[in-house]
Amino acid sequence: MSSEHSERFVKPEVVSSHFHIRPGEVVADFGAGVGYFIPVLAESTGRTGVVYACDIQKNLVETVAGLARSKQYNWVKPVWGDLESVGGTKIPDRIVEVGILVNTLFQIEDKQTGVAEIIRVMRPGARLYIIDWTESFGGLGPQPQSVFTEREARALFEAAGCTYERNFPAGPHHYGIMFRIP
Question: Which of 44, 112, 166, 175 has its CA 20 to 30 A from that of 15?
């Protein structure tokens, strides 16, 4: 990837330093895609942790499963699931300690149900990190009408009872915000 393009994307090894994941924690990547964040999450939790890699696209879940096998990340659990259905992720209730939602919020049509599903699987007091696009440009990211702003994201999660804690740098075309789960 050219340096021009790499500056447009979130860098897992950089932004994950804001997640403060500890060995042994249970982590969920909601909308894991091809597993862009999986290596850094798996290394952060270590063998004593669990990383759920959830995506609605079965072929992407299979890609993550292959990545986990190739790197011998036996604690990574690829999950074919749907955030837009309560119970749809198939992750047990109240077990996740750290959740990440990267470049996914703008794609969720039923955002309130998506938030409810995230809250269902997370422990009270758990940390949720959201990273999403600040803009649409050059064919990358969402269409202009689909950009879901930081202000909108904060209002959505606060309306569901989550507590906003802070924002963090997520790259030149993204915002990063952190919430505590009720």
Answer: 112
Residue-wise pLDDT tens digits, 34-72: 999 999 999 999 999 999 999 999 999 999 999 999 999
Residue type, 144: P
Q: Distance from CA of residue 140 to its chain's centroid?
A: 19
Q: How confident is the model at residue 136 (pLDDT cuts 50, 70, 90)?
A: confident
Distance of CA 23 to the CA centre of its chain: 18
Beta strand ranges found along the chain (DSSP E): 26-30, 50-55, 76-80, 96-102, 122-133, 163-169, 174-180
Unique residue bearing structure tokens 């009872």: 161
Burial class (CB in 10 A: 0-12, 13-18, 19+), 145: exposed
DSSP annotation string for 13-29: HHHGGGT---TT-EEEE
Residue 107 token pair: 């794609």
Domains belonging to the chain, first-starting first, are 3-180 (3.40.50.150)
pTM of the model: 0.93
